[in-house]
Model the fold of this input.
Amino acid sequence: MKSAVIYVHGKGGSAGEADYYQKFFNEKYDVIGFDYKSELPWEAKAEFQNYFTDIFSRYDEVLLIANSIGAYFSFLSLSESLIKKAMFISPIVDMEKLILDMMKRADISEKELFLQKEINTPFGVSLSWEYLSYVRDNPITWNVPSRILYGKNDNMMSLKTMTDFSNRINADLTIMENGEHWFHTEEQMRFLDDWLKKSI
Done:
């Protein structure tokens, strides 16, 4: 039986990060980083579905590890797929709330965004009415057995948002007290490693 682990990076990440996860899997698994190019959710949906259709044609078993917005794109694109199990690290699970929070921070109303269509914020993020509308019209549905790793100091998603989402999709949620959205310190990586070993 041929098995694959597909790693989907977050914003600013790269497919090369997949190499880190190789050590958790025996030689039965090919660990592959998905070097996706899309930044918009409707583009990601098409790109992800095309890529995974090819993967499913070549492997009998597929596991998914996805990070941050890579997880969000996976939720949007792969809910009806043949993934056996998914492991999400700091996933974006409520994009609408994230956008509305950014609008509030930048003091932009929905009417302003609707009229201007796109507004650059002082903190370097461009907000788009088309993006917000798409997110609202395409809520997440997810039916794959999943585990989620969440840092309690995540500045993108609140604990309540993550807990509510985990309950809704029946995912196993692990919370790291000193964790952040980006797991990168020695302590955080040790925690991530232990979590992953138990998740496989």
User: Anything to note?
Assistant: The longest helix spans residues 41-58.
